[in-house]
Amino acid sequence: MESTLGLEIIEVVEQAAIASARLMGKGDKNEADRVAVEAMRERMNKIYMRGRIVIGEGERDDAPMLYIGEEVGICTRPDATDYCNPEELLEIDIAVDPCEGTNLCAYGQPGSMAVLAISEKGGLFAAPDFYMNKLAAPAAAKGKVDIRKSPTENLKILSECLDRSIDELVVVVMKRDRHNELIKEIREAGARVRLISDGDVSEAISCAFAGTNTHALMGIGAAPEGVISAAALRCLGGHFQGQLIYDPAIVKTGLIGESKEANIERLQSMGITDPDRVYEAEELASGETVLFAGCGITPGTLMDGVRFFHGGARTQSLVISNQSKTARFVDTIHMFEEHPRTIQLR
After folding, report:
1. Upper half-sphere CA count for residue 251 (Cβ side, 13 Å)
2. Alpha helices, H only, 174-324
3. Segment 47-58, tens digit of pLDDT
């Protein structure tokens, strides 16, 4: 899968990032997302594959493109046999977020990315459009920290695993009312808190890279993005756990269905019989082969954002594979004109 799709999926996230970056700072998050979706889908449909969107542009929304269940790739077209033999191609599941951190892009803030994860059919958890309590940590703490333990306990464990004092640890938490007690406990335990407004995929992945000064991600965010984070962290050997949140009283901000009881019924209708189950990264991204790709829209901890120059643009992407056990940072010059007047190297 990696040898046939590796470069292709990089180009998919690059095109989404470039499209969205053109609207960076213009204050229109919906339009930034729309153009990213269109660009991602257009490039994806040029790939010789049989793809199915399992996490896309909204389970409840009537999204016209990259909706859950949509088939993508040349070999899903009605005239597919004119281009390939669909039966010879591996069926793959795809989780996408063409503009992760739409607000970040709209207001020119750091951390917005175009991201996707792929695996063979059935290899990615089809997360409902709910919230998820998440815990991400470096590989040294994998299987030692646990989302069922208190933040204070996990910080002590993390401190031992990383051979750092607790006051040297930085925990990323989304700035939401639901996290007020979490933030208070982290600070009382002695660790430092870095608050973000959106975009927890980038921060979860950053936990697995030394030198990012991100040692853990804690708190509740969107469940679909949790699966994408889990895919990347599984490939990197990092720690990730997620637990679905179905009670509106816990979320406090954002939409999460009509009631706790209605949400439980909805989960059961999707085959999720234990709504309180804690999922490990290997369960959320269970496929034999898992690939993650992301491209910076605005500058972030891991990647630079899209930089335009006269006649072209420069992007930085990250592709992670559990097959080759690699994390590749890809720096790309895109030439929109045949002979650009300048090519930006820095």
Report:
1. 21
2. 180-189, 200-206, 223-236, 248-251, 260-269, 281-284
3. 988 899 999 986
Q: Whose CA is closest to 223, among 208, 242, 202, 241?
A: 242
Q: Are strands 290-296 and 239-245 parallel, antiparallel or unpaired?
A: unpaired
Of 142, 143, 147, the residue nearest 132 (C-alpha)? 147
Helix/strand/coil for 107:
coil
**Alpha carbons 133 and 115: distance in angstroms, whole number:** 20
Q: Which residue has the tokens 């679909």?
A: 224
| Cα 39 from Cα 11, distance rounded (Å) | 10
> Is 216:206 a contact under the CB 8 Å cutoff?
no
Tokens of 255: 């939409």
CA distance 333 to 346: 11
What the block records as the tokens of 204 is 């979860």
CA separation for the pair 21, 312 (Å, rounded)? 13
Residue 61 pLDDT greater than 60, yes or no: no
Query: What are the structure tokens assigned to 329, written together?
Result: 């940072």
Q: Which of 40, 125, 41 is nearest to 295 (CA)?
A: 40
* Residues 226 and 284: beta-carbon distance below 8 Å: yes
How high is the pLDDT of residue 6? 76
Cβ contact 214:207 at 8 Å: yes
- C-alpha to C-alpha distance for 332 and 303, rounded to whole angstroms: 12
Asked if 74 contacts 83 with a C-beta cutoff of 8 angstroms, the reply is: yes
Q: What is the residue whose two structure tokens read 């699966």?
A: 227
Query: Taking the model in full, what pTM does it have?
Result: 0.93
β-partners of residue 294 are: 115, 318
Structure tokens at 96: 């996408």
Pairing of strands 50-55, 71-72: antiparallel
Looking at the chain, the number of H-run helices and the number of E-run strands are 10, 14
| Token output for 15 | 């095109």
Q: Amino acid identity, residue 156?
A: K
